[in-house]
Amino acid sequence: MDGLTGVAHRMVFLAIFIAIAGTAIRIFFAHQRKVRKAQSQREWYPPPPPMPGAQAPAQFQEGVFCPRCGVRSAEKYCVTCGYDLQATIQQVHAGNRA
Fold first, then answer.
1. Structure confidence at residue 59 (pLDDT)
2. pLDDT digit string (tens) for 21-71?
3. Cα 87 to Cα 89: distance, rounded to the nearest angstrom
4. Cβ neighbours for 60, distance < 8 A, ≥ 6 positions apart
5. Residue 1 has what pLDDT?
6. What DSSP string runs through 17-52?
7. Residue 65: CB atoms within 10 Å
8. Partners of 64 in the beta sheet?
């Protein structure tokens, strides 16, 4: 009877060990995937500085910043998200007159 009990205990121990090892391996590979994804998203380079004497187009020197997405636009609607900027333009012009 002792022989079977010992074998059963070893089998249970082996099953628990395999489960723990499998879980540890899955956690390790998930972490590696997360690190690789974060590194690929982090690789951003700033745009080059403007050439000396170069100026931005006239349409972007004027205008207002979109309250929704933050892009500057001189149009009635945001060039990026389509937000109606007419009220914002009126507020800016009213503030300039005051």
1. 42
2. 999 999 999 999 998 887 776 666 777 777 776 555 544 456 788 888 888
3. 5
4. 72, 74
5. 52
6. HHHHHHHHHHHHHHHHHHHHHHHHHH---PPPPPPT
7. 14
8. 73
Compute the distance between CA of residue 76 and CA of residue 78 in angstroms, rounded to an integer.
7
DSSP 3-state of 29? helix
pLDDT of residue 53: 65
Residue 52 lies in a domain: no
What's at 94, amino acid-wise? A
Whether the pTM exceeds 0.90: the reply is no
Residue 22 placed within a domain: yes
Residue 51 lies in a domain: no
Residue written as token pair 């005051």: 98
Structural domain tally of the chain? 2
Q: Which pLDDT does position 72 carry in this prediction?
A: 83
Position 60 scores a pLDDT of: 42
Q: Tokens 């309250």 identify what position?
A: 67
Q: Are 85 and 75 in contact (CB under 8 A)?
A: yes
Structural domain that includes position 14 = 1-44
